[in-house]
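Technical annex, item 7. During the second reporting period the consortium partners agreed on a shared format for inverse folding records so that results from different sites could be compared directly. Each record opens with the tokenized structure and is followed by the designed sequence. A conforming record, contributed by the partner at site C, is shown below for reference.
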């Protein structure tokens, strides 16, 4: 089961992300000091295995993340929720850096100045040097640019930060080598990999889904079994911090029609001034809620469908014309058009019917194939695409709109979908197109190669003080009644939905709520059953009731987790029963796949050639990596014992293994592509990930922030 599998899966720390992505951010962009020495206050905000994280480090990290956000989002407001999110990013970064420094010390990883010089002068210098000093025309390092920058006294501070990152990147490489010496792929491993990649298997098999073992009701689960499973897997359910659960009623801050009219009126009043403006840049910086909309190219995908229709009418193409204000996704937009030109990013509009299926299940593949044929016949018979999408599409977001997904550019959808849509004409129905999401039947409803080049003034539609006070009064009235008559009773009487937070810890984003210091302050001071005051946030007002406290250090065995464990135990029991049942069939005198299938209605023999180990693909059946992995290890000409599949077991008869004519193992190993070598090194990467993850889990991390 996916949920329980996620509980078992380790939260790997990918080495590149750990050592490159966040180090580039904090060392190169921020110029932070991780030595712990600072003239600022030295109060402790935490410890990692006894190593202190000072308040000055934490403050610097928070400030740097905030400044980085502002650089990337000019004019954007930093909300209290943003601040809490930035604090968590800063804390996580400092913890990771401390753990990394401790690994450098453990492995004795140091760096000499000459190593830095050699790295800078090498033909393949560190990543950050390549990033900033590569000549795009030649693909080589621009040595003149590098040396000029290095010797420029005006760039001294930036160069020191750049050099600091180079040092850390070199130490990263040393750590990688140190870890890889503990576990490596042998020449024999690589040879086995090459053989499997080039071999094509021919086999017959009978898949036995878990349902073949019997209904779930035949595998009852006792409460003591659930408790035993919980106890045995408790270490996988650890949580570092105390958690809380709460119910709440939410009063959203939604702008009224009066608020919308006020925003529109403000922009209408600016039209004449905007038209007469000589310096549009300064005018926009002063008047717009988004000061970056200066001389920008907009295509249809940059607007909602209705707004795009308004902006892209033929009447609105004259240079100097001001179009708007037009409502668009919570704001009004006013654009002074400079020109209408061909877009660098053409936009398309389409509707789709999404059919989800399990590619490892032959029955599911067949079901979807038959459904797609049925749908095409319905379309040919004149049934509107919109009706079929509403009824059959597995994409709820677009199904309610008749399958319409609006306007988009190529990079906003998966490649297979983009290739199909942008290669068709408006009005065409194409497909089925398979993507990672399933099968798509697509109707192309528009293509537009135009772009509006212009300058934009935006006014966000915000709740007025009147709207805010109105919602506040509603929330306060509910809270008072809830104190008198009870939370749930009052919510039912008021016809207000009660939502649940799920389990959350301090300073985390709460589903549907986000980061809120007011919510967590209430939750971690209250006792179970307590009712909150009205809690005001950017999104609106909350009245909460604390329903659970967990200070044990582990996820509680609550109703949701109990259901997950029960389902997992049922799956385990069905799997064991199925394996035993299938093994008995295989051991019967004279057993063959054909005899077994003939004596059990519903079973069928799948015959397939050119089965590929590299991607687990079985022609005419689908993808089943565990099954193909088992097939690759079987002896030809012999009926197998039960082997695991992605959804049960199978009996397999391997007919043959075929290598390409003239295949030579040593030759193929010598010329194996980089992709092949990366596949061989996955074993090493998994080892590194698990090592670093184990370091984190075994570390003593103390969060001493107030």
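Designed sequence (site C submission):
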């Amino acid at each position: 089961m996916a949920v329980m599998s996620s509980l078992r899966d380790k939260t790997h720390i990918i080495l590149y992300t750990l050592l490159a992505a966040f180090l580039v951010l904090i060392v190169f962009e921020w110029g932070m000091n991780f030595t712990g020495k600072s003239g600022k206050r030295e109060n402790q905000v935490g410890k990692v295995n006894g190593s202190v994280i000072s308040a000055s480090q934490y403050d610097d990290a928070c400030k740097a993340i905030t400044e980085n956000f502002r650089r990337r989002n000019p004019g954007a407001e930093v909300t209290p929720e943003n601040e809490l999110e930035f604090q968590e990013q800063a804390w996580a970064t400092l913890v990771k850096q401390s753990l990394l420094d401790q690994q450098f010390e453990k492995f004795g990883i140091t760096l000499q100045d000459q190593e830095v010089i050699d790295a800078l002068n090498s033909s393949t210098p560190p990543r950050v040097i390549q990033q900033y000093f590569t000549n795009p025309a030649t693909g080589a390092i621009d040595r003149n640019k590098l040396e000029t920058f290095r010797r420029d006294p005006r760039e001294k501070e930036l160069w020191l930060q750049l050099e600091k990152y180079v040092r850390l990147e070199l130490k990263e490489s040393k750590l990688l080598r140190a870890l890889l010496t503990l576990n490596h792929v042998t020449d024999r491993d690589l040879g086995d990999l090459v053989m499997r990649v080039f071999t094509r298997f021919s086999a017959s098999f009978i898949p036995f889904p878990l349902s073949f073992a019997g209904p779930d009701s035949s595998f009852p689960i006792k409460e003591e079994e659930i408790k035993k499973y919980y106890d045995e897997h408790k270490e996988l359910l650890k949580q570092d911090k105390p958690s809380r659960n709460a119910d709440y009623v939410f009063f959203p801050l939604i702008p009224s029609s009066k608020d919308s009219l006020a925003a529109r009126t403000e922009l209408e009043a600016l039209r004449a001034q905007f038209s007469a403006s000589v310096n549009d840049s300064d005018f926009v910086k002063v008047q717009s809620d988004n000061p970056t909309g200066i001389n920008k190219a907009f295509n249809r995908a940059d607007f909602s469908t209705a707004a795009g229709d308004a902006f892209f009418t033929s009447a609105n193409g004259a240079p100097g014309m001001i179009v708007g204000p037009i409502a668009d996704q919570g704001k009004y937009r006013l654009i002074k058009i400079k020109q209408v030109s061909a877009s660098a990013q053409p936009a398309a509009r389409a509707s789709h019917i999404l059919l989800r299926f399990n590619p490892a299940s032959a029955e599911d593949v067949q079901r979807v194939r038959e459904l797609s044929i049925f749908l095409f016949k319905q379309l040919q018979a004149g049934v509107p695409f919109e009706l079929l999408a509403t009824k059959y599409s597995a994409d709820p977001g677009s199904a309610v709109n008749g399958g319409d997904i609006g306007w988009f550019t190529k990079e906003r959808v998966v490649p297979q979908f983009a290739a199909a849509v942008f290669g068709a004409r408006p009005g065409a129905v194409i497909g089925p197109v398979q993507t990672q999401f399933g099968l798509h039947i697509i109707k192309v409803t528009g293509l537009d190669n135009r772009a509006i080049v212009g300058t934009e003034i935006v006014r966000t539609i915000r709740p007025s003080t009147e709207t805010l006070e109105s919602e506040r009064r509603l929330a306060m009235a509910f809270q008072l009644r809830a104190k008198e008559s009870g939370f749930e009773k009052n919510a039912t009487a008021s016809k207000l939905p009660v939502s649940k937070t799920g389990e959350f810890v301090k300073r985390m984003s709460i589903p549907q709520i986000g980061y809120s210091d007011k919510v967590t302050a209430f939750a971690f001071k209250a006792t179970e059953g307590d009712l909150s005051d009205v809690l005001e946030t950017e999104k609106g007002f909350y009245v909460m009731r604390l329903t659970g406290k967990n200070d044990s250090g582990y996820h509680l065995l609550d109703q949701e987790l109990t259901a997950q464990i029960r389902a997992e135990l049922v799956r385990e029991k069905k799997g064991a029963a199925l394996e035993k049942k299938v093994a008995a069939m295989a051991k019967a005198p004279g057993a063959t796949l054909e005899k077994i299938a003939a004596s059990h209605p519903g079973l069928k023999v799948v015959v397939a050639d050119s089965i590929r180990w590299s991607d687990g693909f079985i022609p005419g059946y689908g993808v089943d990596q565990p099954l193909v992995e088992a097939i690759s290890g079987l002896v030809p000409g012999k009926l197998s014992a039960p082997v695991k599949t992605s959804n049960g077991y199978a009996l397999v008869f391997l007919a043959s293994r075929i290598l390409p004519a003239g295949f030579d193992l040593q030759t193929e190993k010598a010329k194996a592509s980089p992709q092949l070598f990366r596949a061989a090194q996955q074993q090493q990467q998994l080892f590194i990930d698990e090592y670093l993850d184990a370091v984190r889990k075994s570390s003593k991390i103390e969060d001493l922030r107030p």
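The chain has four domains: 12-180, 196-233+560-658, 239-248+465-537, 255-462. Residues 12-180 form one domain. All partners now use this format for quarterly exchanges.
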